[in-house]
Design goal:
The complex is a heterodimer of chains A (about 725) and B (about 210). Chain A is mainly beta. Helices cover about 5% and strands about 55% of the residues of chain A. The longest helix of chain A is centred in the N-terminal third of the chain and has 21 residues. The radius of gyration of chain A is 32 Å and the shape is elongated. The termini of chain A are far apart. The relative contact order of chain A is 0.10. Chain B has ten helices and no strands. The radius of gyration of chain B is 20 Å and the shape is globular. Chain B has about 210 residues and is mainly alpha-helical. Classes of the chains: A mainly beta (about 725), B mainly alpha (about 210). At the A-B interface, helix 1, strand 3 and helix 6 of A face helix 1, helix 2, helix 3, helix 5 and helix 7 of B.
Amino acid sequence: MNLSRDQLTTFLILAISALFFQNITYAQTTISGQVTEKNGSPLEGVNVYLEGTYDGITSDAQGRFEFSTSETGVQTLIASYLSYESFMMAADVSQMNDLVIRLREDVNSLDTVVISAGTLEASDNSKVSVLKPLDVVTTASALGDFVGALQTLPGTTTVAEDGRLFVRGGDAAETQIFIDGIRVFTPYTPTTNNAPTRGRYSPFLFDGITFSTGGYSAEYGQALSSVLLLNTIDEPDQDKTDIAIMTVGGGVGNTRKWEKSSLSFNANYINLAPYLAVFPDRNDWEKPFETFAGESVFRRKFDNSILKVYAAFDNSNFELTQEDNNLPDGLYFKLKNSNFYTNASYSGELDKNWQYHAGASYTHARNDVCIQGDEIENMENSAHLKMKLRKRFSNRVKLSFGAEQFLTDFTETYNNSFVSERYGFNNGISAAFTELDLVFSRKFAMKLGARGEHSQLFDQFTLSPRASVAYKTGKNSQLSLAYGDFYQQPMNDILKFSSDLKAQKTQHYILNYQYVADNRILRAEAYRKEYSNLVTFQGEFPGFDGDYMNNGDGYAQGFDLFWRDNKSVRNVDYWLSYSYLDTERLYRNYPTAATPSFANTHNLNTVVKWWIEDWKSQIGFSHTYSSGRTYTNPNMPGFLQEKTKAYNSLSVNWAYLISQQKILYLSVNNVLGFKNINGYQYASTPDMNGNFNRRALRPAADQFFFVGFFWTISEDGTDNQLDNL
Amino acid sequence: MKKVLAILVILISANSFAQSKYQQGMTKAFELWQSEKPWDAANLFERIAQVETENWLPPFYVAQINVFNSFSEKDKEKMVAQMKKARDFLNDASALTENNPEILVLEAQLLTAWVVYDGQQYGMKYSQKIADLYRQAFELAPDNPRVVLGKAQWDIGTAKWFKQPTDVYCDDIKRAIELFETEEPAGEFYPRGGGEYAHTVLKENCES
């Protein structure tokens, strides 16, 4: 080719300008359209753009958008907006004209319906939460015990001398406790007859508590009435040391934090001797209650997973003589208990849509008891292994399934001057469960589940279906319905004598209404529970010749109301909970169906917390009214035919913030000194007039005083504590 | 040929004077923000963030706009949605930079927004964490005016609550104001400014 100089010049100019201007002159395509909601109303502020490019715009008040791009061929258009599911469309840019994009509401957003039948939560999820984690330590009657705080919620019965959770007509063994999804076999510290027990675990290690009074997920089994789920904190805030000095003992805690891991431990020593020296109670203590307990949590984060190891041990002992109608010298009782529990869980994401959770726990518990010269020693070794997988198909469809194994080895020896016996059992339960979560819209959601269990001891297989639905009836209100079948093996006190039995069963039907708005919650729930296959036996106590059968049955029905409001009165947060319960059952050694002594008709709890800014103090009140409980009067025909007078207790506490790091805490339980009666003990033989004499079963002490000083030392704490402190 | 070369020189230099797409985009986003269209700006920052996947600034600003606006948001549900969005983008940004005081300050502000949302619930939970974040930021950058201001503001709040003197912290705010005046941003489009706000804080807390 032979080009002239001019031709060459022209060619070069053209070529270069073509190169340079190509993105202006070459294929500018306009993309336009409108974004609306499902119902057609326009959405303003939607970010509409081509994926991986700078090209895009924000939709205007009419939902319209228009922008140009130099991209060609097939591209992905994205429309994204807060609280809506992102829209994606792959097409040739030349076809992206006059598009009509409808965005679907994001069902993960806050105003989506939540299945709430049966569930009471204490967590940061303000949507379903009725308690806040801090309530455990600031509720007057709770004394820092999470079980005590839960007893102010509806669905529970006040059984003051016991302290465990009694839910909707069920006995205490019908409630199971889980830490990070793994079962706790021995959750309560042992205690004597007329003093309430406490949960073993420190409330500060948990940041989520879910208390279900029925209709719970297929993931949980071996609980006829209720489950209590405690989740340990994933990541503590900072390094710190906690010191507690109390009238009943002391404690220290320490948390260390590294980049990926953290370790917390705390230790407590409680000794009631000094307190009892000042305020003697109705028991004649040879050795007052003493316990030493320690807990530790280690957490480590990996890229997509977290490992938690929790361990707790405690050693308790006491020795006393209690008044007894049939024993002129009283009943001698001595107990030594040691308990070790450890739990490890590992959970994470496999890829974006698969999650797994694996865990195991081991419990070793030992009791040495001496009652009137009879020596009883028992030892329990239990383990729980669990694996769960969860697949998220979309925001609207999630499936989870898993398997677990429970193992219990229990042995007991019984020695007195006449007999020496050794007995026990070895129990294994295998279970598998699956659950499907369906969210049809922000208004309507459903959960379907099933659980199968096989008991190695009974060689019995049970299948429990579970189902719940929730429907949003208004902006702030919703209705939920739940149904479920629940099986539970008889407890150790029965199994150690007989294993020729079947699992006990309940069916739950629950209807729940919830209204949540602006720091106010109203919750109303009606339920019906049907019991079958309850264990029955002959004799005063379970024994070798008890003639054990699954002949019992029963029902419980009623309704619960809960109202919490921290809005109406400035600096005041209060809640009211009321439960109505109607229940009868034939079980254990009952001659006929009757209302058990741990169930009563009316329970009303009022909790008030008042923050007084000028005093830097929170003053709390907590009142419990609980209608009378049944007892048998042998002077009259019938069984559990009479009722005690109602129980009343008003507790007051005062928490004073000396500084951000130091808190002084005072509390008085039953400040008005109500003389409560938990029941009556009748003489086993009548007197000369043919009358059975009785003795009122009173609490060990009518009132309880508590003073504690809590001091947290942290690095920025000193920083925050101003120079004059 | 001279003509050709002349044209080439012009074209090439024009090209190098022209801003990159990133610079154009960021400049435009700041303009939108200044003309009180924060959500248009946030959307643009978000578009830039999904292209510039190695740069912490675009997601940082998405988070910052969401945090700042959540303080004044009346609709509680929207407020939570914004705070959650801010958390996502703050996580994205902090994965791209290390030991960055701006990130720590923004995280402290995000947690403060939660405390504003529900003081009873999040006050106890986050107050220590917030103080800790400001402390870390202060260790990294004791002369960063936003760090100095944020920390002083938080300390004043705490001191007032415990009815303790606030004079020390007023001096800190004054120091922050001086630092704002002489601040040189660490790089192009890096966080700057806040001086006017510092004057407001001083007026509200120290001159009454």
